[in-house]
Every structure is written in structure tokens, then in C-alpha cells.
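Practice problem 4.
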């Protein structure tokens, strides 16, 4: 590729990112925060981690094949401008596809060992797959666009006669896409009435820009509210972006990852407020304010090691956010498959995260099952000691996308 063509590609990517930030990022962040509040409310006292961008991209695979009221509901859920059709919505998919690729492209920071070997410091992989019952044909325009915009693999499987094998194929796809972090999403075979499964995965691994020394990690109390638990508390004193927002009863630090455009933002409620108070009152503008206006401050930081996972059907949450027709006999996916009535039967989301002195590794998968029949399923160092329930989000600065969102009640919970 010539220098000019590289420049053209970069210019095009920058244009798409700017278009996303202006027209789509606010709605995507609103979806992320709304989902976070619902999950938190339904998981009182438990850790929650999920990937907004992963669910969002999975919904985009459905939007690509939707029509009528189903299309309108997904547009509203994703926070897209209303009334978009045909050329305009095609542009939306093109923008989102480019943004997902831009997110992946931030993972190109490579260092070399003394032996000259490449040492990848960070990885962000976004993977999509479409699994179709044998003898069922997808609409050709859907095939072309899902491959073009979302780089989706399309595979034929046989849910009807060999659901166990089809399920294993999907499990293997998810395991490979998440670097074996989610080795087996489905423990039981998928319903044999299923005709299409849409699978979207994200894998993230990065090292801290300011790493913690393992020698500084010690056993300390974490105050859950009902009890004190002993955790491995990491510690450093360094300059990091920090913000204090007394009117929101919170303070936050921004911990950058090395070699890319991603940070973990840790929000700690003030002692007089609970995590529930902060989660309930938090707005999208607040998340943006924290990301944009944190200033470099000498911080005495304590952050617990943590490793936990979360998995659930998210049908009910999506219905509460306005996606109703897709789960009923009013579902319209005629731009995906024509001639047969189908509806979404189940949406499953799984995510996991591990945070230690070196950095963070996390992954997520969203699987959307589509059935032939209708089915409904419900200066002096500022102390910032994360020793009580808190929330965090992993934020892609360039595209203003939230990759992971979590609330932590007990970092030792597995």
C-alpha cells in the first residue's frame, strides 16, 4: 500500500469514528448505562461484569436483518437516530463496522524482546459468527452485508437432527474467539427448533501503563457493607488522572493501559454514600465528564486484585429496555431470512474479567438464538483506597465506546 493510500484509509477511519462519536456513541453509552443499572438492580450484593459493546454489536447483527416494528425497536434500543432506512441505515452499519475495526486496531502496540521476538502488549479481538440450520437460506443481501460490515463467519449446522454437535461447534467458536476464557457457554444442547444463531465475542488483554509491584501487594480488608473480607490489595503512589465530584458524591481515577487508547476508570463512592446511590444517579454525561476532565494527580492508590465472571439470559433486560416484538410472533426478520416465520427465543451474555498487578484480561460473548416457532423466555498523595463496593468501566477513548462495565461487591467472589 502506498503512503497516500495509507493516508486515505486513516482519513476514512477518522471520518467514521467522528461520525460514530457524533451520531451513535451517545446512544450506545446510554444503552450501556441503562443495561448496567438493570443488571445491578437485579444482582444486589453480587459482582456483575458485562460488555456493552459486545451486546451492541450482536444487536447490530439482528438490526441488519430486521424490518417493520422489530427494526424500529432495535433502532430505539441502540440509541440510533429514528427514521433511518435503506441507504442511511446501511451507512450506520458501515460506521459501526469501521469503529469495531478501529477498536481492534488499537491493539497493535508491539515491543521486541532482546532476541528480536515480537511481544504483543495488548490485544482487542472482536469476532462475529452466524450459524444457520442446513437447508435454510439467508437473504443474499444479509449475507453480503454481515460479511462486509462485521467480518462474520457463516457456517451451516444441523440443530434439527444433531443439536449436540451444532452446540459444540458454537461453543468451540466462542472458546477460540475468547482465547479459551469462555470455554463452554452452553452446557446443554441448543433447542432443536433453532434455525439461526448469531454469536458475537470480544477478547481484551492489556498491561497497565503504570504497573503495580507484586512486592507492594498485601492482605487488606475490603468492606462489603455487611462484612469485611480479606483481599489481595495492590498498591502504588504515582501520577494518574483523577477527578473529585462532590456533587455526585464520588471520586474516580483513570488507569491507562500501555500502548493503546484504552483505560480502566474506577469510580469510588464517597463514604457517606453507597454504591447503589451512585449507580442510581449516574448519567452518561457523568461518565463522559470523568473520562474527559480527570487531571494528573499524585495518588496513593490501592486496588484489589479481582477475578470473576457473570452469565445470564438477558431477554428480560432487553424487554425492559423496549425490545418486545423480537421475542414474539410480531418479530420481523425478513431481511435475514424470508418465507418462514421466526423470532428470537433467547439472548445469552457471558463475561469474565481478571485484574492483577500486570494488567487486565477480559472477554465476553453474546449469543442470539432465533427459532422457527414463536417462543418467549423471560501532591501529598491523594488516598484512593478501593476497599468498599465500587464500579468500573473499560473505555476506548478514541471512539468513546464502553468495552466492559462492572460493579464489585466482593473482589474475592468467583
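Answer key:
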Amino acid at each position: 500500500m502506498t503512503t497516500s493510500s495509507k493516508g486515505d484509509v486513516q482519513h476514512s477511519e477518522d471520518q467514521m469514528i467522528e461520525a460514530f462519536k457524533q451520531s451513535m456513541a451517545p446512544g450506545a453509552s446510554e444503552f450501556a448505562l441503562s443495561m448496567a443499572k438493570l443488571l445491578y438492580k437485579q444482582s444486589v450484593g453480587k459482582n456483575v461484569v458485562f460488555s456493552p459493546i459486545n451486546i451492541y454489536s450482536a444487536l447490530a447483527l439482528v438490526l441488519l436483518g430486521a424490518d417493520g416494528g422489530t427494526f424500529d425497536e432495535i433502532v430505539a434500543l441502540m440509541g440510533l437516530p429514528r427514521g433511518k432506512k435503506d441507504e442511511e441505515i446501511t451507512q450506520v452499519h458501515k460506521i459501526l463496522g469501521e469503529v469495531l475495526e478501529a477498536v481492534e486496531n488499537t491493539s497493535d502496540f508491539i515491543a521486541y524482546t532482546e532476541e528480536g521476538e515480537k511481544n504483543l502488549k495488548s490485544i482487542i479481538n472482536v469476532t462475529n459468527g452466524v450459524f444457520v440450520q442446513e437447508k435454510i437460506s439467508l437473504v443474499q443481501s444479509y449475507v453480503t452485508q454481515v460479511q462486509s460490515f462485521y467480518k462474520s463467519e457463516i457456517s451451516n449446522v444441523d440443530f434439527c437432527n444433531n443439536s449436540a454437535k451444532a452446540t459444540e461447534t458454537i461453543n468451540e467458536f466462542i472458546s477460540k474467539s475468547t482465547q479459551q476464557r469462555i470455554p463452554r457457554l452452553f452446557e446443554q444442547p441448543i433447542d432443536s427448533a433453532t434455525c439461526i444463531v448469531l454469536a458475537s465475542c470480544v477478547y481484551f488483554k492489556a498491561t497497565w501503563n503504570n504497573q503495580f509491584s507484586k512486592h507492594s501487594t498485601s492482605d487488606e480488608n475490603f468492606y462489603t457493607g455487611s462484612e469485611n473480607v480479606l483481599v489481595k490489595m495492590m498498591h502504588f503512589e504515582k501520577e494518574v488522572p483523577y477527578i473529585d465530584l462532590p456533587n455526585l458524591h464520588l471520586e474516580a481515577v483513570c488507569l491507562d493501559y500501555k500502548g493503546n487508547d484504552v483505560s480502566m476508570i474506577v469510580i469510588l463512592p464517597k463514604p457517606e454514600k453507597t454504591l447503589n446511590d451512585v449507580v442510581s444517579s449516574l448519567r452518561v454525561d457523568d461518565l463522559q465528564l470523568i473520562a474527559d476532565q480527570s487531571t494528573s494527580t499524585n495518588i496513593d492508590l490501592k486496588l484489589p486484585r479481582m477475578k470473576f465472571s457473570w452469565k445470564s439470559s438477558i431477554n428480560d433486560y432487553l424487554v425492559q429496555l423496549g425490545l418486545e416484538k423480537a421475542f414474539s410472533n410480531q418479530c420481523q426478520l425478513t431481511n435475514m431470512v424470508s418465507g418462514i416465520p421466526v423470532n428470537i427465543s433467547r439472548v445469552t451474555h457471558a463475561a469474565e474479567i481478571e485484574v492483577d498487578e500486570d494488567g487486565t484480561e477480559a472477554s465476553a460473548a453474546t449469543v442470539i438464538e432465533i427459532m422457527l416457532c414463536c417462543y418467549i423466555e423471560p501532591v501529598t498523595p491523594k488516598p484512593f483506597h478501593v476497599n468498599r463496593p465500587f464500579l468500573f468501566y473499560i473505555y476506548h477513548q478514541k471512539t468513546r465506546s464502553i468495552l466492559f462495565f462492572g460493579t464489585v461487591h466482593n473482589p474475592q467472589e468467583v
